[in-house]
């Protein structure tokens, strides 16, 4: 019964991680294209945390590698052919640990990106820099407030979003996508942690359901 549960769990966790990893990659790609325009990426006017691409390498590629192995092993061992299930279970546990680390990195970097706010052009006169239009992080540079207070102010007070002149709608774009990356990476950490336990049980019992 334990082996059966281990096999079924892998066939659920694997595809779920595949979907989440793919969504993470897509979300990060969209972060590189604010308002759907590529010119800001070409010009280098993209948030540094978006350019770090945590959703691609952290919540994406690393998680997808683990998910592919977990899914393949879970389905290949259905009905039980002696396919080296204990060694595969060990490999899935190791890959799942890497997936937890990748998802955690994505969660942290996305959280920092959300806190700092987007890179955009804004009227610097409101920040004591004359009347010129500058590219920068207006919410990060907003006064002498503490970072958590700044984040709370700009995320909850949509009236402040108009400070960003270009790209159009970049504040909402960043808030939605960085928040989505945090939710995705949190779910990935939970599922990958579950698979670590599942892989450890697989090392003892195997995935084979026909034993």
TrEMBL record:
Its membrane topology: Multi-pass membrane protein
Keyword NAD: no
Transmembrane segments annotated in the record for this chain: 12-35, 55-77, 89-112, 171-191
Superkingdom, taxonomy of origin: Eukaryota
Coiled-coil parts of chain: none
Subcellular location: Membrane
Keywords: Membrane, Transmembrane, Transmembrane helix
Database matches in InterPro entries: L6_membrane
GO cellular component: membrane
Entry-linked Pfam families: L6_membrane
Similarity comment text for this entry: Belongs to the L6 tetraspanin family.
Protein name (database record): Transmembrane 4 L6 family member 1
Species of the source: Buceros rhinoceros silvestris
Classification of source organism: Eukaryota, Metazoa, Chordata, Craniata, Vertebrata
């Amino acid at each position: 019964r334990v082996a059966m549960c281990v096999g079924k769990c892998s066939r659920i966790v694997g595809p779920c991680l595949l979907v989440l990893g793919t969504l993470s990659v897509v979300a990060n790609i969209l972060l590189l294209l604010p308002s759907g325009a590529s010119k800001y990426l070409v010009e280098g006017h993209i948030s540094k945390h978006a350019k770090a691409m945590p959703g691609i390498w952290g919540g994406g590629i690393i998680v997808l590698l683990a998910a592919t192995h977990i899914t393949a092993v879970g389905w290949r061992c259905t009905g039980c052919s002696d396919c080296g299930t204990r060694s595969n279970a060990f490999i899935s546990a190791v890959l799942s640990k890497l997936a937890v680390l990748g998802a955690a990195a994505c969660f942290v970097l996305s959280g920092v990106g959300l806190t700092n706010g987007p890179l955009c052009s804004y009227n610097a006169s409101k920040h004591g820099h004359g009347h010129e239009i500058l590219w920068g992080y207006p919410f990060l540079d907003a006064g002498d407030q503490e970072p958590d207070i700044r984040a709370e102010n700009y995320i909850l007070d949509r009236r402040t979003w108009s400070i960003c002149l270009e790209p159009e709608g970049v504040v909402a774009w960043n808030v939605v996508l960085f928040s989505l990356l945090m939710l995705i990476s949190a779910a990935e950490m939970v599922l990958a942690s579950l698979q670590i336990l599942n892989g450890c049980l697989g090392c003892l019992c195997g995935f084979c359901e026909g034993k």
